[in-house]
Amino acid sequence: MSNVDPAEAARVLELLSGHRSIRSFTDAPVTDEVIAGAVRAAQMASTSSNVQAYSLLQITEATVRAQLAELAGGQSYVAQAGAFFVVCGDGRRHALLCAQEDSPYEVTLESFLVFFIDAALFAQNLCVAFESQGYGICYIGGIRSNLPDVDRLLKLPEHVFPFFGLCVGMPADDPDTKPRLPLDAVWFKDAYPTDEEMLSQVAEFDATMTAYYEQRIGKSRDWSTAIRRMRAQKKREELADFYRGKGASLD
Amino acid sequence: MSNVDPAEAARVLELLSGHRSIRSFTDAPVTDEVIAGAVRAAQMASTSSNVQAYSLLQITEATVRAQLAELAGGQSYVAQAGAFFVVCGDGRRHALLCAQEDSPYEVTLESFLVFFIDAALFAQNLCVAFESQGYGICYIGGIRSNLPDVDRLLKLPEHVFPFFGLCVGMPADDPDTKPRLPLDAVWFKDAYPTDEEMLSQVAEFDATMTAYYEQRIGKSRDWSTAIRRMRAQKKREELADFYRGKGASLD
């Protein structure tokens, strides 16, 4: 069953381990051929009961991309990257099929979460496919800051839920990878850690991040402070209303 | 910037394109060393503002795995695979940090969705890492059919949200890959397709799936009928209540 070349397997781990988000791109285009190859590979990611509940909307019009860059909070690379996509959870195919036979269609919380998982597995495969060919990527959660405007701009019909954007292009810089939590802070056996264990793992990570930022930007920043600050800001409170308005009951 | 070996890139696309879920495993174990390597690589997947809002709980105890196999709807491979994991969205680290300074902590719908995206990107990288080494994988959404029981069994604290399970092991069979929607049914440029276009793409896919099942199980089955049937069954209606009970406001 397993005829794996260990050197090749090691290179895949290296590829995954080498990921860092790219926010500055050369003007090299991403051709339709490259995109088609990446999308085909990405579609083979697991999908819950084969529902394939996602769509990939590429935006090529410069004026629309400029508007999206603004709506995403002023992220210029949305306009500048070789290619820009909006990844959507997509129940529309299902809804149309149900409507053909007057059968009921509802996007429950379970369906909605399946859309999210399906779309994210697809998107991550897509990113790995692009990165394996030397492209850089950056997920753009920022579109969720202005979803009603994004939705109007892209004219998305009911049951199509914009989730996040994706910049793809040839990197114009080569940033470092960013540290992650220690292994024993995310992988547990049989029992979830105690609060004390978890806080000690976080303290270890704070030291790592402090060293990382001191070396990189000459300032002392830790993860705990960043997380607390982020949590104190309530963000995107209108999200549930927006998704409900697009046909998700979320119950 | 781009010093990519085209043959190597092609092999990554082949790896992704070759995915099929494995539901029958040899008794070869998945060693801690292999798991650690895969988790480290998976952690490098993108994470929204570096929140790293996921945990991976490996279940090694045979009796617990047998119970989980039942709770997932009688999926024997949950007990039988070389390794079994529960992938959780995890706000607990954040909650503990906020509690230390009496700062507010709330899992809004936005946070909850970020947990889902973070966890899914991590999990998909994890699967690619395992598959690159010859292992097979199967996502287990079935645990969401009995989340309160799964949660009690695993003793997960507040703000830890079980999302899906993951079987990993050496494949004992070699099933075909399953067809996916045609490329032009998931990748659009600038405009979402009309209903007519979408239904014609779905009809094309129905023909593909019918041929696939006729050849494979000698029965005629299409995608449209499967989707309609699935949609008519309301499933997992208690999900929102469960996640709310674990500390997600979902608003």
Strand order across the largest sheet of chain A: 1-2-4-3
What profile does the largest beta sheet of chain A have?
4 strands, antiparallel
- Give the terminus-to-terminus CA distance of chain A: 43 Å
Helix/strand order of chain A: HHEHHEHHEHEEHHH
Q: If interface size is counted as residues with C-beta under 8 Å from the partner's C-beta, which chains form the largest one?
A: A-B, 123 and 123 residues
Quaternary: homodimer
Global morphology of chain A: globular
* Rg from alpha-carbon coordinates of chain A: 20 Å
Beta strand % of chain A: 5-15%
Helix fraction of chain A, binned, reads 40-55%
Give the key terms.
homodimer, 251 residues, alpha+beta, 4-stranded antiparallel beta sheet, 10 helices
Summarize the structure.
2 copies of one chain form a homodimer. The first copy, chain A, has 251 residues and is of the alpha+beta class.
Report on this model:
The structure is a homodimer of 251-residue chains. By secondary structure, chain A is of the alpha+beta class. The first copy, chain A, has helices spanning 6-17, 32-43, 62-71, 77-80, 92-100, 109-132, 147-154, 195-217, 223-232, 239-245, and strands at residues 54-59, 83-90, 136-140, 160-169, 187-189. In chain A, strands 1-2-4-3 form a 4-stranded antiparallel beta sheet, with helices on both faces. The mean pLDDT of chain A is 95. Chains A and B meet through α1, α2, β1, α5 and α6 of A and α1, α2, β1, α5 and α6 of B. β5 (187-189) of chain A pairs parallel with β1 of chain B.
